[in-house]
Give the backbone structure.
Amino acid sequence: MRKLSSLLCTLALIAGGPAAAAGINIEGLARTCNNCHGINGVSVGQSMPSIGGLSEAYLKQILMQWKSGERFSASMGRLVKGYSDEELAAIAGYYARLPWVPVAQNTDARRVAHGKDAVERCVTCHGDTGSEPDDDVTPKLNGQWAQYMELELMKYRDDAVKMTHKKMRTNARKLDEEGLKSAPEFFASQK
Amino acid sequence: MNPVNRRAFLKAIAAASSASVLTIPARAHAGVKARVVVIGGGFGGATAAKYIKLMDSAIDVTLIEANQTYTACPLSNEVISGHREIESLQTGYDKIARRGVNVVHDFVTAVDPLKKTVATQGGRKLSYDALIMAPGISFDYTAVAGYSEDAVTDMPHAYKAGEQTRILKWQLQAMADGGVFIISVPPKPFRCPPGPYERAAQVAHYCLHNGKARSKVLILDANDSFSKKGLFEQGWKALYPGMIEWVPGAGDGKVERVDVASRTCFTGLNEHQGDVVNLIPPHHAGQIAVRSGLANAQGWCEVTPMTMESTRHKDIYPIGDACIAGELPVYDMPKSAHMAMTQAKVAAGAIVAKLNGLPVPQPYYVNTCYSTLAPDWGISVVHIYRVENNQFVYVKTAGGISPLDAPPLQRKLEAEYCVGWFNNVMADAFA
């Protein structure tokens, strides 16, 4: 049984942790996220981000910002308001412990090449390929869906909606129309 | 592992709040051979079958579905308007079969809830430990006088996607400029609450961009309000001014009789002749659910909030459009793909726990419905339900509709998210 016990400890660490302690059925809760974000948080819809393997701090922060209303979302705000802070923290922890899977997608070689120049302001925080962000609250971008990233940039460029990150606002606005397409394609093409 | 240890192992996993990704290893179950039968391979049934298998691969899961190819209803209004091909809504069952689900293309003729058996047209007889009942809806063709099952080609419902969707599209294409396209909406509850109103927008969009701008969409409604009403009316006015008219039940909108040959709809006091009549008949839970004794007097299956188990028969779990759930009577769960899938996941979790002798897991119910009024104009509604003291509670501090005064970016995002949502739900249910 010793082998089994250590296995159980590992399982508890992976799957349960604080969520289990708080009486949250985190597997059941996370299953509802799969509808839009894919099994294990790997999305197959181009406008929807993959979330499995993003950092716990980033996921927790964005969920809480949507809940408080300080950050605009088209629909996530209405969803997260239905859950306790503990449940949202458990979701962040759950997805952070899954592997990040860059999604293979069709990208335009010319755009990717142009994107390499367009992302000079992005890579200082997100890393050269988007895979090694500077800090815990900056998301990975390598192999994220290009369309999702373009839509996010459109949010940062639009004064009509409330976004939290000043630096992202500034840098997203500095992209020209071509950069708005090619920067996402560059990161989308990275493994 | 001996049986006692296996049980302790499973309990410990449950305590660790396990485990769909952490699939319970098949060999830990050498002794367990429970059988689950799933009736119906739509979003609800396919999701339930797949997730039971993911959670516990030792459970034998058989999905019985008459058709080899499934055609999704969500986004099918875009087939009518020519924005999408019907093939983009279709899928087979090969991928969930590869996950270990026994997929049987057959038609269930009888369920015996006492003997716990299912009989099929093809002569099969299957016994079950748990049964997922996900047959969708059956139309009541006799509810509107003059209508019948034979009339569905002349007055298509297009409310089960497939051939009916194509017929309605062809009729729209054949309609002359200045024509009247009637949509007759049945009394609530009905499948896809925003469906008829999204359809009106898609039809108007087709007409506006195909030389038929003088045409009109007339919605004859048995009800006095509808899902996302303010958002729809705002969108109709902005995108298709003067092209869409909605007649509520209180304004004599309920179609009581039709004359199929002349494409005429009779309401209490008026008659409306259409060039195309899209008659959505009243409906109820799929026939097999009704015949199995699961439905209430209104034709829908009531369920236990913690598990989705039927209130009428043990070990049967009616999910999807066939069930009636939520904080009734006001906040009923919408009959949507998304809702069916979260119900399926709750039922799957409850069944796997029960078959492994584990406590009932906490259920989570959520719905998201997107509607697309134009390529850059999407709107949505979100519903969250919790279970408190074994009752469904609609969470009023969350959910709700997209804001009415939203900037254009919100409408664009929701139109794009609708497509991303669709790709993900198709994969989550069928792949």
